[in-house]
Amino acid sequence: MEILTELSGDLFNITLNDPERRNAQTPATWDELYEISQGIPSAARFIVLRGNGKSFSAGLDRAMFTPEGIPGQPSFIDLATRSDAELDDTIAHYQRFFRVLRDLPQISIALVQGHAIGAGFQLALACDFTIAEPNTEFALKESQYGLIPDLGGTVRFTEILGYHKSLELIGSGRMIPAAEALELGLITQISDHLGSGLEQLCSPLRSILPETLIDTKMLLARIAYGEEPWVAERRAQSKRLRQLHTLMSQQ
């Protein structure tokens, strides 16, 4: 799949560009996304993930399920023959981009239209915010193929929904309309025009001192990952106070 990148003001756009295949993903897609994430321009305050065409991403390329697989990439049959340690390392490698988005200082935003299925939904869930068109549908369909979501989908569902609702939705793999996804807290906003929704979301965040927004994101991420929240708050606030003191001293 071709992946396009562009810096537009303070927005760094990453666009999946395989509309004829509904932006189906492969392990090579995840490797390229990770490499892109390691070179985000310093001028960017926001990372915007998009998918060209009618769908954001229909998920994993179905060729991964065939014995032939995808040239130059392992099929699921190949993966299943590896040792436990090798298989664990491989999946950890695939997860890198989906994990790194929360560690990057930029705010990440997915703009979703049409469908976000499986890995496509997990890509949106990995972002800090998701804006979707009203007719968008989401699903973690891995269970219908005998698999589980292993690109952070189970982590995000459990964080947002808790155990019971996560089990229902991941276990069934059913489609989730945008309105329901919004009500559940799986997406941030529904907008008829994704560009307008993006501007509406980013505008108030731009008024915040960049370092403050970064530290706020890092604080919430540490708490979400299990760091003792009172300690996390103290450390983040200490950093903010010192930086504010430095700025005031320079005036």
Quick recap:
The chain has 251 residues and is an alpha/beta fold. The protein has helices spanning 27-37, 76-80, 84-94, 96-103, 119-125, 153-172, 178-184, 194-206, 210-224, 229-249; strands at 2-8, 11-17, 46-51, 107-112, 115-117, 129-132, 137-139, 176-177, 189-190.
- Major β-sheet, in short? 6 strands, mixed
- Characterize the overall form: globular
Radius of gyration: 19 Å
> What's the CATH C level of the largest domain?
Alpha Beta
Task: Count helical runs.
Answer: 10
Secondary-structure-derived class = alpha/beta
Give the total of domains: 2
Strand order of the largest sheet: 1-2-3-4-6-9
Q: CATH homologous superfamily of the largest domain, by name?
A: 2-enoyl-CoA Hydratase, Chain A, domain 1
Low-confidence stretches: none
CATH architecture heading of the largest domain? Alpha-Beta Complex
H/E element sequence: EEHEHHHEEHEEHEHEHHH
Percent in helix: 40-55%
CATH topology of the largest domain: 2-enoyl-CoA Hydratase, Chain A, domain 1
Number of strands: 9
- The CA-CA distance between the termini, in Å, is 50 Å
Approximate strand percentage = 15-25%
Please tell me the overall pLDDT.
91
